[in-house]
Design goal:
CATH class of chain B: Alpha Beta
Number of helices of chain A: 3
Structural class of chain A: alpha/beta
Helix content of chain B: 25-40%
Shape of chain B: globular
Order of helices and strands of chain A: EEHEHEH
Strand order of the largest sheet of chain B: 1-2-3-5-4
Radius of gyration of chain A: 12 Å
Strand content of chain A: 25-35%
Number of helices of chain B: 5
CATH superfamily of chain B: Histidine kinase-like ATPase, C-terminal domain
Distance between the termini of chain B: 28 Å
Oligomer: heterodimer
């Protein structure tokens, strides 16, 4: 699972790529948290999921965990470009009520 | 098809792709295939995280069985781990027995929603068996009736 970040104005876009499951989430969590810590002054973090080829409920736990971390910094969070499979799980979880899809 | 593999998280991708490959002769849509992969991933994750909580040092095994019947794919995921004391509670959406670990508690809900049939049996101290069926070909509604 790869993660790359790009500054877009006053926000940070985190591009995830790969299959998000119980195995890959361990290193992904570490990398994402480091990027968040390095950019703690931004107004919003956008997780771009276009490169996520597979995601199970582990992904929901991961995204909710990052939402809580970002909230402690006062940073908003959004999601963009999930594929159909990821979108189905995200919708079911209700996460869009906390973390909007843009 | 019967596949037995170690209960290690790196085997999840292998297990769900095996199930998907097995289903291919039934001509599933990409969406149906995604549902199967997700449900298998959830079942296998449960084995690795919950059935064998003492981690990956011991040689714990998970069994994945797949069979077809007309346009239906039957999947059975079995472990011989600690079992589930209260299945009704485990099936409750968003319930997790590990609240401090960033877990969504949606695994069983996803299996139930993404598959046409779902059944779980468990014996504490002896293991858990998850049986699921996916009906391919846009006949899921007829199948449900």
């Amino acid at each position: 699972m790869h993660i790359q970040s790009l500054r877009r104005g006053d926000e940070l876009v985190l591009y995830l790529e790969g299959e998000l499951d119980e195995h890959s989430v361990v290193t992904l969590r570490t990398k994402a948290d480091a990027l968040i810590d390095e950019n703690a002054g931004l107004s919003r973090a956008v997780f771009n999921l276009a490169g996520v080829r597979f995601m199970d409920s582990t992904g929901i736990g991961f995204l909710m965990g990052r939402y809580k971390k970002l909230s402690r910094y006062g940073i908003k969070m959004a999601l963009e470009a999930p594929n159909q499979g990821a979108d189905k799980i995200l919708l079911m979880s209700g996460i869009y009520s906390l973390v909007p899809k843009i | 098809m019967k596949l037995t593999f170690l209960a290690r998280s790196e085997n999840e991708v292998f297990a769900r792709n095996v199930a998907a490959a097995f289903a291919l002769p039934l001509n599933p849509t990409l969406s149906e295939l995604s549902d199967v992969k997700t449900a298998v991933s959830e079942a296998v994750t449960n084995c690795i995280v919950h059935a064998y909580p003492d981690g990956t040092d011991a040689e714990h095994w998970v069994t994945l069985e797949c069979s077809t019947e007309d346009n239906r794919l039957h999947i059975v995921v079995t472990d011989s781990g600690k079992g589930i004391e209260d299945i009704a509670r485990a099936l409750t959406p968003f319930y997790t027995s590990c609240p401090g670990e960033e877990r969504s508690g949606m695994g069983f809900t996803i299996m139930q929603t993404f598959m046409n049939e779902f059944h779980v049996t468990s014996e504490p101290g002896h293991g858990t068996r998850v049986e699921m069926t996916k009906c391919f070909g846009g006949t899921a509604e007829a199948y449900a009736r």
